[in-house]
Amino acid sequence: MMEEIKKNIKKSQDLLRKKDFANAETLLLKNLEISQDNFETFFLLGSIYGIKKDFNKAVSHLEKAIDIKPKHINSILNLAIILKKIDQTEKSMNYFEKVINLDKRNIESYCGIAEIYEEKGNLKEAEVFYQKALDIDNLHHIANHRYGKLLFRLNQHVKGLKIIEKVSGMIRFKNKTIEIK
């Protein structure tokens, strides 16, 4: 039985690389008929349902994956992202924080928390978390882009333009009166 589960997981991973979600899902559902305690099966199904935007099923399967492997960062992060998409921001924030507790350098979690604060109108707290992300990697494209946009909302236009310029690789303006230095 375990051999069949492993074989189905390998085949489903190959199908996922080819974006054949339907057949990958079918194989993984066969695994659930064999065993209800295989982490990879729940994780992959949760990921498939997330991609298909079947968020309730994604949440259910990712929660089961986390029950089996409570410190699996990708499961926790995927769940945090999906919960954010379905406006369960408090639960999402908790899962982003769990990821950070496991991996202090997880930029996506800092950005996720920053976005939640930004959506709630707590722009200063959002700025703190974007800064934490950029302290890890000051060239991270997504963190810089979101941080630059936030700075505009905070009326810090020159600083925001500098960030946007850095991330986009824009050529400096020729007009010295508007050049950003």
Topology, element by element:
Blueprint: H1 2-17, H2 21-34, H3 39-51, H4 55-68, H5 73-85, H6 89-102, H7 107-119, H8 123-136, H9 141-153, H10 157-168
Structure description:
There is one protein chain. The chain is an all-alpha fold. The protein contains ten helices and no strands. It is elongated. The N and C termini lie far apart (65 Å). Mean pLDDT is 92; it is low at 170-181.
Number of helices: 10
Tell me the Rg in angstroms: 20 Å
The main pleated sheet reads as: none
- Poorly predicted spans: 170-181
SSE topology string: HHHHHHHHHH
Class of secondary structure makeup: mainly alpha
Instruction: Identify the overall geometry.
Output: elongated
In terms of quaternary structure, the protein is: single chain
Percent of residues in helices: over 70%
Distance between the termini: 65 Å
Q: Can you count the beta strands?
A: 0
% residues in beta strands: under 5%
Average pLDDT, rounded to a whole number, is 92
Keywords:
181 residues, disordered C terminus, 75% helix, 10 helices, elongated, mainly alpha
In short:
The protein is mainly α. The chain contains 10 helices and no strands.
